[in-house]
Amino acid sequence: MKPLDMKDIAIIDAFPVYDCERRVLSVGCGDGRIDFHLARMGYRVYAFDSKTYDTWVDGKNLTFHKADIFEPQNLPSAPIVICSQVLEHIKNYKKSLVNLVMLAEIRLIITVPYKYSFASADHRNRWDDGNIHKFRGHCQPYAVAISKIRTKPKDAKTGKFSYLIIVDKRQNYIRESQ
């Protein structure tokens, strides 16, 4: 089992601590690194990706499935939904985000890289301090918290980081008409 990095730890730290079943939907799970750890922590994890990986091994609290975020009817809802380092790869990330919000019963936890921090040829979307706040508008009327997290200690020296975006459906903010 691969060790958790600082981003994974920030995701786990963002889990609700009360009023929540220990069920997690992990969308875009990749090789399942964080999912194996969550299952060992006692969470029931349903992990999904658009392709299968050799590392996938179902366990007592963990099942892997191939599925598409653009077909949310094929995904179960869950109190906690994780989508880490995925939206930068998806052309229509806004539609994916709508589906993720719909699937999350209590909290949606997303990470996306800052601009060119972890540049890859297949990154279709890039966020920075100027446009990351668009997530708030896409996730209305729910509360959205955005913070910066490092993946590795050396990233502090190079200026690399990711954004941690938490959407909490228990906190429903409706703006009054002006």
Structure write-up:
With 178 residues, this protein is α/β, with parallel strands linked by helices. Helix content is 20%, strand content 29%. Strands 3-2-1-4-5-7-6 form a seven-stranded mixed sheet. The model has no long low-confidence stretch (mean pLDDT 89).
Overall strand count: 7
Cα-based radius of gyration, to the nearest Å: 16 Å
SS-derived structural category: alpha/beta
- Biggest beta-sheet profile: 7 strands, mixed
Second-tier CATH architecture:
3-Layer(aba) Sandwich
Order of helices and strands: HEHEEEHEHEHE
Q: What ranges have pLDDT less than 50 throughout 5 or more consecutive residues?
A: none
Cα distance spanning the termini: 53 Å
**Looking at CATH, which topology would you report?**
Rossmann fold
Average pLDDT rating: 89
- The helix fraction, in percent, is 10-25%
Number of domains: 1
Q: What strand line-up does the widest sheet have? A: 3-2-1-4-5-7-6
State the shape: globular
Q: CATH homologous superfamily, by name?
A: Vaccinia Virus protein VP39
Strand content: 25-35%
Compile the SSE list and pairings.
Layout: H1 6-13, E1 23-27, H2 33-40, E2 44-49, E3 62-66, E4 78-84, H3 93-103, E5 104-113, H4 134-138, E6 142-149, H5 155-158, E7 162-172
Parallel strand pairs: 1-2, 1-4, 2-3, 4-5
Antiparallel strand pairs: 5-7, 6-7
